[in-house]
């Protein structure tokens, strides 16, 4: 039980440290308030939790939504480029693949008897 409490406290402290670093990195141009500014902003956020009214909903149909967000630039993944990369990878892998022997060319091993392996199999 003590181990659980220790790890829980450690994770909460680590979480607070991450929030502090994120706050300092976001407000890098401030006066360097550090921990004091972080605590002040955190408390202000807790006090004003429901103060801002939510934005009004936007009614639009799917066709208008997708038509407004069309990009003419090429996508992140180009199909031709991906196909070329896969062909190159296949060419590099194929020669080093597993050796496939014809059926019947490999003799099965004799079943082992006893608890210790034979001297030749060690």
User: Low-confidence parts, pLDDT < 50 over ≥5 residues?
Assistant: none
Overall pLDDT: 76
Q: How much helix is in the residues?
A: 40-55%
Report the β-strand fraction as a percent range. under 5%
If helices are DSSP runs of H or I spanning 4 or more residues, what is the number of helices? Answer: 4
Q: What distance lies between the first and last C-alpha atoms, to the nearest angstrom?
A: 47 Å
Q: Tell me the radius of gyration.
A: 32 Å
Helix/strand/pairing class, anyone? Answer: mainly alpha
The count of β-strands is 0
SSE order, as H and E?
HHHH
The main pleated sheet reads as: none
What sort of overall outline do the alpha carbons produce when their principal axes are compared?
A: flat
Summarize the structure in short:
The chain has 122 residues and is an all-alpha fold. The protein has helices at residues 2-26, 35-47, 62-68, 79-93.
Report what the structure shows.
By secondary structure, the chain is an all-alpha fold. It has a domain at 1-51. The chain contains 4 helices and no strands. The longest helix has 25 residues, at 2-26. The mean pLDDT is 76. This is DivIVA domain-containing protein. Keywords: Signal.
Note the topology:
Elements: H1 2-26, H2 35-47, H3 62-68, H4 79-93
Question: What are the key terms here?
Answer:
flat, 4 helices, DivIVA domain-containing protein, 122 residues, single chain, signal, 49% helix
């Amino acid at each position: 039980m003590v181990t659980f409490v220790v790890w829980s406290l450690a994770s909460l402290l680590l979480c607070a440290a991450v929030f502090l670093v994120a706050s300092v990195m976001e407000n890098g141009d401030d006066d360097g308030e550090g921990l004091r500014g972080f605590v002040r902003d955190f408390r202000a956020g807790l006090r004003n939790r429901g103060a801002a009214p939510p934005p009004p909903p936007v009614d639009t149909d799917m066709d208008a939504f997708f038509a407004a967000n069309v990009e003419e630039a090429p996508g992140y993944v180009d199909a031709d480029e991906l196909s070329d990369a896969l062909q190159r990878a296949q060419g590099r892998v194929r020669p080093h693949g597993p050796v496939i022997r014809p059926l019947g060319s490999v003799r099965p091993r004799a079943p082992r008897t006893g608890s210790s392996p034979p001297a030749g199999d060690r």
